[in-house]
Fold these 2 entries.
Entry 1:
Amino acid sequence: MRDRDEILRRTEAFVREGMHGEGTGHDWWHVDRVRRMALRLAREAGADPYVTELAALLHDVADHKFHGGDESAGPRAARAWLGECGADAATVDHVSGIVAALSYKGAGVPTPMASTEGAVVQDADRLDAIGAIGIARTFAYGGSRGRPLHDPGAAPELHDSFDRYKASAGPTINHFHEKLLLLRDRMNTPAARRIAEDRHRFMQEFLDRFHREWDGADDPA
Ligand code: ADP
Ligand code: NI
């Protein structure tokens, strides 16, 4: 078994290389923010920092959104990589289990996490989906898929299955109602709930302004 610091260092280099310059908000800097936030939440929640950091680093390798909807690609890639690094079997199982369970799957689909390490990585990933950065990432992703910003005639859908959620192709504003505004109440840890509260408020302000400007109803005079 290799030294833990060495495994972390090699994993960081592997992920950084693979996600560099990605244009939909799933780039290396997303992973880096999730890693830093997850480690911060881990301290408060008492999660193991090694498993937390590995899972944060590997959480978006081979994400279903970029692998034809294949949910098993991510955990498989994490497992293969950690095996190649010589990580111990318990760590490989734990990290790939977290990667498998992490993703948001629709408004009506529960996404339980079995460990504190999983809980803080999921919270960190979800915190990066909301607030100012969340707004920026969402429009970047929508643009990458050729989605309109907004369509007043297209109502948001509260998806009750992962397949339905994955198939949705609505305008980007709908994603706020289908996911982003629901995340505050789905945080696992108290620290994440605190941070989410503030980011949530900012998104609501943004949406209020967006709709006022859309309607031409924002004349400050
Ligand atoms: P998850 O694994 O929970 O889906 P990710 O870290 O992969 O989380 O990032 C998902 C992010 O990608 C969303 O928060 C959003 O910014 C963007 N995204 C995903 N689906 C859509 C969509 N239909 N419209 C706009 N943005 C989207
Ligand atoms: Ni992510």
Entry 2:
Amino acid sequence: MVLSVGVVGTGNIGSYHIERLAGRLSGVRVSAVFDVATQRAEQIADSIGARAHAEGMDLVADDDVDAVVITSPGPTHAEFVLACIGAGKPVLSEKPLATTVDDCEKVLEAEIAHGSRLAQVGFMRRYDHGYGQLKAAIDDGSIGEPLIVHCVHRNATVPEAFTSDMSQTDSVVHEIDTARWLLGEEFTTATVLRPRRSPLAAEHLQDPQLVLLENEAGVIVEVESFVNAQYGYDVRCEVVGSEGTVELETPSVASLTREGQRGRSVPTDWKERFDDAFHVEFQQWVDGLGSSTVSGPSAWDGYAATAVSVTCVEALNSGRRTPIHLREKPALYR
Ligand code: ISE
């Protein structure tokens, strides 16, 4: 059976996912698209033989749409995810699941009322080979008890519209999810420090930022977020344990030696760095739906990531160590 997918949002990440779903994965086709930029949506629809809808909700209701991928701007995610759950259709939403904790809770309630999982959140790093190896080393006890996690999240540059809060909700949110997943514990407090600002950052932007998160087991996760690092996209992670450490290596690229220098290239952006991870993420999602199974990052993971990143924004603004409050985990997600 070929899964017919509708994609909400045909911008930067939307067109990237459409290209993959329509041409590079097996067992799936893109049957419908929607974007508020209607011309762009129509062009993309024409190029792949899909239908362009004038309204996002019409796409969700379309009989030729078995499942939905949401890549529209973050503030619109919740209403589309809720509509998909209402229609009983599986939905893969790019992060965030919703931009507010209240909206994330509405999604949890809707899914609980439905009685089974339909929503998956696009935390693609969980599908990266290197992160998978980190998790295996933690789970099999190779490094003993995890104690500290050091993370680096650097972007070459960001658009002018990128705000200080987005450093947490758009970038650090990935470390929040991966660290929750790697360690299998929830976070309890957040502190965000403001180092000296880069002169190359926009005036309104606090960049870099340094985050300290503590989890239920007392592990401290430290994240440097620096979104104007200039030289490329650089994501690092080292987990320090009681018996050893495990860290991500630079993704395998050839090293070039010439004119007295030896060097390796750095990825330019997250698409280049995580292309393989996106591929695995989507193929597993499609394959799972063949047996009506949704097993990737859940609505609970989306809720927790939003709750932690919103608390990080509070901590950035107050300068204080701030408690993180999560509701009790519902049985559906245990
Ligand atoms: C972007 O929105 C992403 O999701 C990327 O994965 C992240 O690394 C980047 O910092 C964000 O701006």
